[in-house]
What we know:
Elements: H1 2-30, E1 35-38, E2 59-62
Antiparallel strand pairs: 1-2
Amino acid sequence: MFIMKHSIARAGITGLLCLVLVFAVVSVGVAAPKFEPVGDVTYKFGEVMEGENVTHIFRFKNTGDDTLEIFNVKGS
């Protein structure tokens, strides 16, 4: 009797863990940021003197269903 209860409990816990894993994988794939460039994706600054500040705006459109966050952007 003890062995049967132990097997049922183990099967229930295993099934529950599998169910949680499936929901975790599905929820990760549901909402994700996705972006598309708007306009040119490259820009040539030409000749720039050392110490001179130059700027250019690159435009992107977030076409995903989550917030798009951009971090640590550096020029080459």
